[in-house]
Design a protein that fits this description.
Blueprint lengths: L1 H12 L4 H12 L8 H10 L4 H37 L6 H8 L3 H10 L4 H10 L4 H26 L4 H28 L1
C-alpha cells in the first residue's frame, strides 16, 4: 500500500495541479499521511527550477497549517484520534514518560522534528496533547519547516538533478547531524 501511495504521489508531481497536490500532501503529512512532501517537491523543482521558492513556500505554509491540525488532534481529540495515530506509528508506549518532559523542551522537539526525518506528525500531535503554547508551536514550526523545504529548494535550484541523489539519501542525515551539533552546542554552553 505504501508503494502505491508513493507512486501516486510521484505521478501527481508531473500534473498541472502539482502545486495543489503538494499543498494537500504537505498539509496531511503533518498530521496523518506517511509520505513526506519532499517526494513531490524534488521532481517539481527539477522540472521548473525557477519556481523553487514558490514550491518551497507552498510546502512550508501547508505543512505548518497541517501541523496546526495535528496540534488540534492532540489537544481536542487525543483519546479518539491522536492516540490511535501515534499507536500506528509505534509511539504510544513512550508517551506518558515523554509528556512530563515534553513542554520543557517543546521548542527543540518541534524544531528537530520539523527539520529532520523524525515524523513531524508525532510532534504536532504531542504538542497539542501536552498543551504546548500554541504561539511557540506555530513559530517553531514555521522556522523548522521553512528551513527544511527552502534548503532542499535551494540545493535543487543551484545544482539541479545531480544533487537529487544526495538529497534523497543523505539530507535527512545531514539535517539530523546539524540538529545534534546545534543542541549539543547549547547543552555544552549551559554546563561550561
Amino acid at each position: 500500500m505504501l508503494r502505491r501511495l508513493y507512486d501516486w504521489t510521484m505521478a501527481q508531481a508531473r500534473g498541472r495541479n502539482a502545486l495543489w497536490v503538494l499543498a494537500v500532501v504537505a498539509f496531511i503529512e503533518s498530521s496523518v499521511f506517511p509520505i513526506p512532501p519532499d517526494v513531490l517537491m524534488i521532481p517539481m523543482i527539477l522540472a521548473q527550477p525557477r519556481r523553487a521558492w514558490l514550491i518551497a513556500g507552498v510546502a512550508t505554509l501547508a505543512s505548518v497549517l497541517g501541523g496546526m491540525l495535528g496540534y488540534g488532534i492532540g489537544y481536542f481529540f487525543y483519546e479518539g484520534i491522536g492516540q490511535p495515530i501515534l499507536e500506528s506509528l509505534g509511539k504510544a508506549d513512550s508517551m506518558a514518560a515523554f509528556n512530563d518532559k515534553f513542554n520543557g523542551v517543546g521548542f527543540w522537539a518541534v524544531l528537530i522534528a520539523g527539520i529532520t526525518p523524525f515524523p513531524y506528525k508525532v510532534i504536532t500531535i504531542m504538542s497539542g496533547w501536552t498543551a504546548m503554547p500554541l504561539g511557540t508551536f506555530i513559530v517553531t514550526s514555521i522556522v523548522a519547516r521553512a528551513f527544511r523545504f527552502f534548503v532542499v529548494a535551494g540545493l535543487l535550484r543551484a545544482f539541479g538533478a545531480p544533487i537529487r541523489e544526495f538529497i534523497e539519501r543523505y539530507l535527512g542525515l545531514v539535517f539530523t547531524a546539524f540538529m545534534v551539533l546545534l543542541v549539543g552546542g547549547f547543552v555544552l554552553l549551559k554546563y561550561l
